Amino acid sequence: MEDSQLFSKPKTPFTGPLQGGLQEGKSIIVIGTVLPNANRVHVNLECGDDIALHFNPRYDGGPAYVVLNTLQKGNWGTEEHKYESPILQGKPLILQILVTKQTYKISVNGKHFMDYKHRIPITGVKSMFVNDMVNLDFIAYQKPEVVPYKTLFKNGLQPGKDIVIYGLPNPDCKRIEMNFRHKYGIAFHYLSYFDANVVVRNTFENGAWGKEERSGGVPFKKDELFKVTISCDKDQFTVFVNDQQAHTYKHRFAKLEDIDVFEIYGDLQLIFVKPL
After folding, report:
1. Phi/psi at 124 (5° precision)
2. Residue 155: band (very low, low, confident or very high) from pLDDT cuts 50, 70, 90
3. 103, CA 20 to 30 Å: which among 33, 81, 153, 215?
4. In the predicted model, what is the mean pLDDT of the chain?
């Protein structure tokens, strides 16, 4: 995606700049796993020595809860609490902070968690911090993903390359479709029909669809977060859903370097796509 910033497998504690500063309409996405022995997680949006947003899940012996606050001129403001938390020790964390004119809209694992009104103008926020209580996979700063989604591969597809997709099927989801395209057709068409509970794989070439590969058992659940990894190997595509192998598809279109588009359609909220 244009106008986006990605840190892959960053070490913690992590401090990184936000290119162009914090901007209305963009999201910060933190993806990782909370350590099993975590006592407090810190995710901060920083303006020099001040902290515009301090997002602080705590595990102090009782049920997990979250504290939010702002640090200005060395002084903490009034804490805001949420005495429930989907952010659990030893479990995956997908934190999304959407910047709006009045608030930070905070979502956890695809579900809205709470809003936090700005106490410091967003124009002053230049960097972010994550402490060492999270094992990080990615941090992204970008405009929210939208469906239909399309991204281009500069040098085509190559063996050993993966694409990772995080999303949430809508409660009334009918279908989710993912395609690897080239100039003349679709090399790999991966389509989940929820009502029929079937997954279709196929190739569109020379103006016609090939023979379908069909199997039962859609690997997604409505209104539940998913992680899809599609690996391209020399001989086949392999699809993993929530880190479990779901399907394989042997290449029918052999010129991998000509496959230069990936797209997603369907009834889902798209949270994050890690490109090739």
Report:
1. -85, -10
2. confident
3. 33
4. 95
Local confidence band at 269 (pLDDT 50, 70, 90 cut-offs) = very high
CATH number at residue 270: 2.60.120.200
In angstroms, the CA 118 to CA 51 distance is: 11
Please list, residue by residue across 188-204, b when 16 or more beta carbons sit within 10 angstroms of its beta carbon and e when fewer do. bbbbbebeeeebbbbbb
Distance CA 207, CA 121 (A): 54
Which amino acid would we find at residue 153? F
Q: Are residues 175 and 238 in the same domain?
A: yes
User: What domain range includes position 244?
Assistant: 149-274
Q: Is 62 exposed, middle or buried (0-12, 13-18, 19+ CB in 10 A)?
A: exposed
